[in-house]
């Protein structure tokens, strides 16, 4: 294969990977504060994409304003999800919580396209389609802008986690009872994490919807997000970025190399292979939190 | 049971526990009737054997019974004249009482400094938080030396200091400690009690201490209560409690002349009381 094409695959793959990472961030945020698996993140991203379509394409708001409005609404929906479905399950076995988030995912996948129409909706984010050349390599401009926005949001989250509020969120993930004992409102912290997860999911849904169109398939971001969250170590924000790049590039290379041989479709296998391989070889992921054991 | 309140006459107690009963899981009665007072700025110990109900009493006061499915089913707990029942622990912390849990429970993946910052959710003002951190590091200079390490890698003594320092970041009026001497060398226990004495004197923080190490605790406190089988069986000035032959025999080892008759007498009295 010629070098320019290969470079093109890698760069565009990396850009897509950063967008996936944004979706994965929601899983990591929830896991980091509450230790719970958020398997509804795909549907949250999808719902965010639909909301973005409503505010931008339907109400005609400027894409940035529309996206912000959608994110604010989704923050509230994230709080609502925690309050209504997760808080009542405090103290229940983990399997119950996993089932509830999967149930939420399936419910939204069915309900939202059912209400808003299942056809693919065009979402124009105002990013020009004109090709962008880097040497001989053709870079997808939409991907480049989207990846830039994704990276900014991820870095902002990282900064948040080093602020005073972030320290409290991390304290909650370390020891909920001890956090409670020193005055941290643990329920608020967990609700806040769900709100943030919904915001990042929405950003991912809108950016991805801007290049693929908005329909229920946005929720398939869940598989990629899960692969990234697991590979990155479930509670590391840096891990999300690195794992996102790895998954994105691996997908691009796989589809570039194998699609012509087998007739397409290899892209979607990559995430599943990565989940399996991580769990078999290094279940704690690349940047998983070290388990502190004192002697 | 007679009235065994020990609050100094005149000043109203900062904490007043009135004949509480605590039940776990709706069936298991862990505390059957505990009453105690802590005076403003007072230093009080709750002594007793393993499983007597000391920790449960502390959790009832701080509100941390809930995650263990316990509940106060009778009696009342008043802090500065206000009933605490029905308040969540974070609200109680904001009223000015804080509970240092047994087994230290530091945030392992946070640095000592971050551990301290995590306990400042009730403070709005940034400068104030910085001053509080400085104050804590002056009390616990060892923590300042380890400020960059993850708390999970500190020694047991350092973690205990961090847990206490973290609790003090909430600016409490009452500091409750559950077994701070657990697993520490006698030298470290002395060091921690010295610091607590300083905190009590400098910041006027009242201390309610739960200890199995009765000898160390009685040297430190003004007042002590003896809890047995879920009830308070004795209360008074530390010197009085210490001099009591029953306590000598049952909790302080009684030196070389263990008086088995006295132990028997104490056991009988205990049965009569419960």
From TrEMBL, chain A:
GO terms for molecular function: transmembrane transporter activity. The chain crosses the membrane at residues 6-31, 38-58, 64-81, 93-112, 143-161, 188-208. It holds the Pfam family BPD_transp_2. Belongs to the binding-protein-dependent transport system permease family. LivHM subfamily. The lineage of its organism: Bacteria, Pseudomonadati, Pseudomonadota, Alphaproteobacteria, Hyphomicrobiales. Keywords: Amino-acid transport, Cell membrane, Membrane, Transmembrane, Transmembrane helix, Transport. It comes from the Bacteria. It comes from Chelatococcus reniformis. GO terms for cellular component: plasma membrane. It is a multi-pass membrane protein. It is found in: Cell membrane. One of its GO terms (biological process) is amino acid transport. This is Branched-chain amino acid ABC transporter permease.
UniProtKB/TrEMBL annotation, chain B:
It comes from Chelatococcus reniformis. PROSITE patterns: ABC_TRANSPORTER_1, ABC_TRANSPORTER_2. SUPFAM superfamilies: P-loop containing nucleoside triphosphate hydrolases. It holds the Pfam family ABC_tran. InterPro entries: AAA+_ATPase, ABC_transporter-like_ATP-bd, ABC_transporter-like_CS, BCA_ABC_TP_C, BCAA_Transport_ATP-bd_LivF, P-loop_NTPase. Keywords: Amino-acid transport, ATP-binding, Nucleotide-binding, Transport. The keyword Transport applies. GO terms for molecular function: ATP binding; ATP hydrolysis activity; branched-chain amino acid transmembrane transporter activity. GO terms for biological process: L-amino acid transport. Belongs to the ABC transporter superfamily. CDD domains: ABC_TM1139_LivF_branched. Residues 15-254 form the ABC transporter domain. This is ABC transporter ATP-binding protein.
């Amino acid at each position: 294969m010629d070098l320019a094409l290969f470079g093109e695959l890698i760069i565009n793959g990396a850009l897509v990977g950063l967008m996936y990472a944004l979706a994965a961030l929601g899983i990591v945020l929830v896991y980091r504060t509450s230790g719970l698996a958020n398997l509804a993140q795909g549907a949250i991203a999808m719902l965010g994409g639909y909301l973005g379509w409503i505010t931008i394409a339907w109400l005609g708001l400027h894409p940035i304003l529309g996206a912000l409005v959608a994110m604010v609404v989704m923050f509230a929906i994230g709080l609502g999800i925690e309050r209504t479905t997760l808080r009542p399950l405090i103290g229940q076995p983990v399997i119950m919580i996993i089932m509830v988030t999967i149930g939420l995912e399936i419910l939204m996948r069915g309900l939202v396209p059912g209400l808003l129409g299942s056809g693919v909706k065009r979402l124009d984010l105002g990013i020009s389609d004109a090709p962008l050349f880097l040497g001989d390599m053709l870079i997808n401009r939409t991907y480049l802008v989207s990846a830039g926005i994704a990276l900014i949001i991820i870095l902002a989250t990282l900064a948040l986690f080093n602020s005073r509020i972030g320290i409290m969120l991390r304290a909650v993930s370390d020891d909920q009872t001890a956090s409670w004992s020193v005055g941290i409102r643990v329920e608020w912290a967990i609700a806040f994490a769900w709100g943030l997860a919904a915001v990042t999911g929405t950003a991912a849904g809108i950016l991805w919807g801007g290049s693929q169109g908005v329909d229920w398939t946005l929720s398939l971001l869940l598989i990629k997000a899960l692969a990234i969250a697991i590979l990155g170590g479930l509670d590391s924000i840096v891990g999300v970025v690195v794992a996102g790049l790895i998954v994105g590039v691996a997908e691009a290379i796989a589809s570039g190399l194998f699609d012509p041989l087998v007739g397409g479709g290899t892209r979607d296998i990559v995430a599943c292979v990565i989940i399996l391989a991580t769990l078999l070889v290094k279940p704690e992921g690349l940047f998983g939190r070290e388990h502190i054991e004192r002697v | 049971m007679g009235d065994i309140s020990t609050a100094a006459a005149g000043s109203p107690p900062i904490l007043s526990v009135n004949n509480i009963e605590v039940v776990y899981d709706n069936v298991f009665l862990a505390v059957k009737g505990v009453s105690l007072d802590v005076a403003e700025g007072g230093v009080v110990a709750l002594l007793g054997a393993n499983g007597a109900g000391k920790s449960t009493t502390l959790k009832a006061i701080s509100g941390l019974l809930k995650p263990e499915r316990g509940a106060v089913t009778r009696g009342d707990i008043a802090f500065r004249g206000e009933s605490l029942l029905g308040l969540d622990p974070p609200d109680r912390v904001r009223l000015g009482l804080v509970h240092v849990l047994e087994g230290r429970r530091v945030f392992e993946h946070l640095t000592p400094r971050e551990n301290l910052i995590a306990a400042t959710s009730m403070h709005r003002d940034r400068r104030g938080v910085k001053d509080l951190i400085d104050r804590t590091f002056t009390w616990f200079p060892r923590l300042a030396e380890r400020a960059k390490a993850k708390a999970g890698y500190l020694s047991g003594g350092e973690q205990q200091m961090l847990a206490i320092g973290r609790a003090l970041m909430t600016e409490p009026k009452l500091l409750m400690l559950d077994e701070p001497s657990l697993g520490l060398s006698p030298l470290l226990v002395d060091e921690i009690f010295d610091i607590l004495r300083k905190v009590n004197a400098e910041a006027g923080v009242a201390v309610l201490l739960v200890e199995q190490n009765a000898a160390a605790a009685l040297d430190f406190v003004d007042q002590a209560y003896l809890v047995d089988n879920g009830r308070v069986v004795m209360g008074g000035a530390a010197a009085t409690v210490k001099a009591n032959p029953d306590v000598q025999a049952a909790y302080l080892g009684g030196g070389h002349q263990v008086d088995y008759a006295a132990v028997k007498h104490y056991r009988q009295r205990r049965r009569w009381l419960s």
